[in-house]
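quick q for whoever's on today - can somebody do inverse folding on this one?? i tried earlier but teh output was garbage lol. tokens:
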């Protein structure tokens, strides 16, 4: 239980240093060795895709490799990837993923280990690619030794990072200033502030206190609601190896989470996806995006996409009853189908995609947050994020604080983790919609999850 990735703070500590290192672009790889190959790539709809799509013709011109890019929303994308991996047809060569999915794919033998490609000088110039430029913790999240409930950061490299996110408070600082309020530092404060900021504005527009994702899927306990649970000192699996989602700490967090949404969010909150939450806050009708992804900031700060550009403050998430602040992290990665018939070409694409130059360009076009130190040292990026927040440098300040103190991967690896988290989310939604006993619903879910994970 103790083998968890907690070194993600190494990423943004480099913001402060601002050494503006030059980017190495030359390498010794023959980039045209797979000329004429066509790759099928499946990505999840995400700001990363919007940022990288315009750059793909550069890769095609550089290599002679054709990229057939398909983009789908998250749930159908994961379903299609899983179906293709299980079929062993190898239709999809490269795909977007995350540690949560990789733990399932690697167990099944469906994803290609990348260490051999990294070690092959015909395919990779390690000096130019510069693995040391990646945040060690973020890179290590793509390694696993296949041992259930442990071994993250050990064994083979199954995926490479393209961005990460953690979960913070975004708030309308103009509304907070109007009402004489400050960003909430505890969840009890957040509940009170959210109620106060649920009102009808002078123009007749309904303002709601909070928005957040609240769909019946794994991302609810893994990310946003999970951030609140961990800050209440809750655990998924306790030190005795017991599924602990029915503990007093988790029950208390769940009851308050539901209460906040019932009192300060619209009735439709029960079907909110991450995209809904992002768009709702950007619409100007919500005062707080509670425990939502920090990488939504480029949308919030873009006047062409947001009604609140220049009016958003950023803060670490509230503390739980004992002062704990603990947010999970999500890392988007790229991986290779082990049944691909074009593995060398697939590797060249993955290597190009995660290179210093390409990563830096995607971040400037909205792919947050960087996984390479050279990107954070790029003066263009430093200038871009400097204006984000209630005061200059607030967004970067929150990033540093989060990643040096509060964020990590708090779930142990297991091939059935996605299914287990879906069951947890179902219990939370059941409590919200049916008004049932939270503790009883979580107890039933804990029993089911223990069976799924072989812990009963």
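ok took a stab at it. sequence:
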């Amino acid at each position: 239980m103790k083998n968890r990735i907690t070194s993600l703070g190494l990423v943004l500590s480099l913001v402060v240093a601002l050494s503006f290192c030059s980017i190495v672009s030359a390498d010794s790889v023959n980039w045209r060795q797979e000329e004429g190959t066509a790759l099928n790539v499946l990505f999840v709809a995400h700001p990363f895709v919007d940022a990288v799509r315009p750059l793909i013709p550069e890769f095609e011109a550089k290599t002679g490799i054709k990229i057939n890019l398909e983009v789908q929303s998250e749930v159908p994308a994961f379903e299609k990837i899983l179906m293709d991996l299980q079929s062993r047809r190898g239709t999809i060569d490269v795909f977007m993923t995350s540690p949560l999915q990789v733990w399932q794919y690697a167990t099944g033998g469906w994803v290609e280990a990348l260490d051999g490609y990294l070690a092959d000088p015909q395919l990779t110039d390690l000096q130019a690619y510069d693995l040391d430029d990646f945040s060690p913790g973020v890179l290590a999240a793509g390694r696993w030794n296949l041992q259930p409930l442990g071994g993250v950061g050990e064994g083979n490299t199954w995926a490479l990072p393209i961005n990460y996110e953690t979960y913070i408070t975004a708030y309308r600082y103009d509304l907070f200033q109007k009402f004489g309020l400050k960003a909430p530092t505890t969840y009890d404060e957040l509940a009170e502030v959210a109620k106060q900021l649920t009102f009808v504005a002078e123009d007749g527009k309904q303002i709601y206190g909070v928005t957040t994702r609240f769909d019946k899927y794994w991302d609810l306990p893994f990310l946003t609601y999970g951030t609140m649970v961990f800050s209440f000192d809750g655990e998924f699996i306790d030190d005795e190896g017991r599924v602990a989602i029915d503990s007093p700490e988790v029950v208390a967090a769940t009851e308050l989470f539901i209460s906040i949404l019932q009192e300060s969010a619209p009735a439709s909150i029960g079907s909110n996806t991450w995209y809904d939450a992002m768009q709702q806050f950007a619409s100007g009708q919500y005062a707080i995006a509670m425990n939502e992804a920090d990488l939504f900031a480029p949308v919030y700060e873009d006047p062409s996409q947001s009604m609140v550009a220049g009016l958003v403050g950023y803060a670490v998430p509230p503390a739980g009853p004992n002062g704990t602040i603990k947010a999970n992290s999500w890392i988007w990665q790229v991986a290779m189908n082990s049944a691909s018939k074009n593995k060398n070409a697939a590797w060249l694409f993955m290597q190009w995609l995660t290179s210093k130059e390409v990563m830096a360009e995607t971040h400037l076009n909205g792919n947050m947050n960087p996984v390479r130190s050279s990107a954070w040292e790029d003066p263009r990026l430093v200038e871009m994020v400097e204006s984000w927040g209630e005061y200059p440098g607030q967004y970067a300040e929150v990033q540093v604080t989060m990643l040096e103190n509060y964020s990590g991967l708090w779930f142990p690896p297991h091939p059935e983790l996605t299914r287990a988290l879906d069951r947890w989310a179902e219990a939370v939604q059941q409590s919200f919609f049916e008004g049932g006993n939270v503790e009883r619903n979580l107890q039933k879910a804990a029993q089911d999850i223990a069976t799924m994970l072989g812990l009963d």
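fwiw The chain has two domains: 8-165+330-388, 166-328+408-452. also The domain at 8-165+330-388 is CATH 3.40.190.10 (D-Maltodextrin-Binding Protein; domain 2). so keep that in mind when u check it
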